[in-house]
Model the fold of this input.
Amino acid sequence: MIDPTRPLTSWMPIVWYGGFLPGLPDLCVGRWPAGVAAKTPWKVWIVETPQERAALLASVAKPVAIRGGGLDFKSGPDAMVSGPIRGDSVIALYLPPEPGWPWFTVGRWPPEVALGIGAQREAYTWEADATEAAALDRIARMRSQMPHMPVVVPDRKQAN
Done:
């Protein structure tokens, strides 16, 4: 259950998915508590620099402000990672860092594509899958739609 008077990390479990190659961002992923009406069970922050990581860690260690009757992530944790993107276009697969967490497919799109998709952080999208096979199938579909996009998949030895 959410207790907005307590630090975010006390009611939202969070794990880090490291960017496994230079130029790939880290993902800070929170799992919404049961009963929360959200579009997905995951709250994802795209973290591109050590400074953003430090700011986000400090922010999630505090309560989230309440504004307009709801949790105000935009002025809290979301603001810590809201800068312009860095790096080239890519589709990347992120392996679960712990059992029970999903596989993430992250796309960093060219600016001309990003403007049309309303992606987080101006040019990122992400999708979560319960299995590696589902994630690889998603990547294959994305690749067929955007064949010029490079795809990076980490060495499976990094899992768990």
Q: What stands out?
A: Residues 132-145 form the longest helix (14 residues). The helical segments are 8-11, 50-60, 111-117, 132-145.
